[in-house]
Task: structure prediction
Amino acid sequence: MASSCWGLSESLCDFPSLSNKSLRLMRKTIDDGFRDLVRQFSDQIDAATRPLQWFLNTLETLFTGTPWFVMLVLILAAVWFASRSVKIAVGTGAALLAIGFFGLWEDTMTTLAMVTVATLISIVLGLPIGILAARSDRAQRVIMPVLDVMQTLPSFVYLIPVVVIFGIGKVPGLIAVVIYATPPMIRLTNLGIRLVDKEVIEAADAFGSSPRQKLWNVQLPLALPTLMTGVNQTIMMSLAMVVVASMVGVGGLGKNVLQAINNQFFTMGFLNGFALVAIAIAFDRASQAFGKRLQKHAEVLDD
Amino acid sequence: MTETDLTQTLSPDEEETVPGISIRNLYKIFGPHPERYVSAVREGMTKTELNRKHHHSLGLRDITTDLPAGKISVIMGLSGSGKSTLLRHINGLIAPTAGEVLIDGEDVAKMSPEALRAFRRHKTAMVFQNFALLPHRTVLENAVYGLDIQGEPRASSTEKAQCWIERVGLKGYENRYPAQLSGGMQQRVGLARALTNDAPILLMDEAFSALDPLIRMDMQTVLLDIQKEVSKTIVFITHDLDEALRLGDKIVILRAGEISQQGLGEEIVLHPANDYVRAFVKEVNRGRVVRLRSIARPKPSGEDWPGLQLPGATTLEGAAHQLLDAPGGSMATVLARNGSARGVVSMDDVMRGMLSQS
Ligand SMILES: Nc1ncnc2c1ncn2[C@@H]1O[C@H](COP(=O)(O)OP(=O)(O)OP(=O)(O)O)[C@@H](O)[C@H]1O
Ligand SMILES: [Mg+2]
Result:
């Protein structure tokens, strides 16, 4: 190969990398060390994930165990109360009926349970971290690069340590989804709070607000539209990740898609894919309409 | 020449005032290390030099003034002259680099965060140029905002707010949101919010500058009417001299962070201290600003007091009308604050006072 190298010597031609032997040694040391560490703390890790496991299982049993027509009514009611839009409710109803008709009801409920839990956890984690980032420039400087890594690192890569630490199953899948779905919540919380009108913040200070009063009376309410976009993004990210999460043992629509890929089941792949799209669109529209409804006060009366 | 003639008149019969806010040798330098440059600025380093050599911005230099309690003081100056910066020192939104802001004998700059918060809640209220209302709260909820922060229950705060909402002319709009109101109405909400707080000090940063001229006059009238009842220590910022003269008992003119001149409105109009101030007062309608007490002369010995009696606070324009209508005589007696005869003016004096432009 040195021949294609302008006739230079080998050390200038090939990149002077570590030798294969030392690379192998490095990988082995790190991997083994990591594995030992995980083994050592396995009890604690188990204890830590048990509430998640319980939460996820409860919701899944609830969603799949409830008769389909009851679930259908509940979901439509939720969509209606969020959006107050007949169009969105009817669309969601039609999508769910089609899903059931093609035999995907139970898998869809499993996926819904997963997405619900992942979204709730992402909000619970993302909101306070976003508030922290908005309050301190130093915190922001630390948090933002971490978010960049979380969002750009190929999801398959962080599945590896997740699996090493938590093994195969629903909870590691959930954790992978949460890692992917939390960054938009953090980012948009931070952004929303930072974009609040400076003069209104000054008014809050001038009237003697404590930091907590300022947060609850001014910053969060005025950041609400952006926060709602964050929630919306989080739901979309969770739905996008369920296929990847199924690689570590999460059931539902994602698992079907994965099977279809492995076996080249064209129809099955598309049916499940469309089911995911249908849910995504329904949730997107409902959550956006909800966000708009919360901004009622911004509308001008026409009298 | 006429100018010097006028200065030889009686002393202007000033009202006794108590300082409500005393600002002492206040310096503000913006930048990462302001403390390093205070002494250089004290010794006369200019704003440009500080900016060019050290990349720090000089906000205020050696401001010393007493703003009278229970009166309206106006801070005036061009854009960037440091008006907002000065105002924000009064409620501690900006901390000085050096100097004191004394209110009831206490230095605002030295208060702990808790003390400062309590001070802002109970002693001050503020009105903002762009209203700074909370968009998700109704007019009524905006008005009770200050009392909410103080922890006052809504039952009593609503009652107080309702009273001020009616006073500023927003009855019937209590449940509207700010976005549904015109600019003038929004600023009425801002005023109601500040007044509901019932604080002795009211800070207004270009509160009427965003409003069109007619609504602006309207709001000035509302403020003056309310001030007659409440007698708060109001600090009002504007870059409009007419507004300053209409509202201000005392006027402080700032230029590039320094006090260019301070005093009563008519003092400034009659005796501008420098070209900067002269440029401001050039276009002023003196007839509406200058008052008889400033141009009254001692009664020439051997003559009687003229029959027409006018209070010292009468504007020259008002006096001219009265003198024209008065039967047989172009002289009037000027009364002191206590109602006693203090001096005399002639129609000529009044005319000269209105026209004189050195
Ligand atoms: N946070 C800051 N950092 C640096 N410089 C500042 C800061 N705040 C104000 N300044 C500078 O201080 C000067 C005075 O500003 P200030 O806002 O007090 O002016 P102003 O008289 O209120 O003007 P305007 O009429 O435009 O509101 C300006 O030159 C401005 O650039
Ligand atoms: Mg200003």
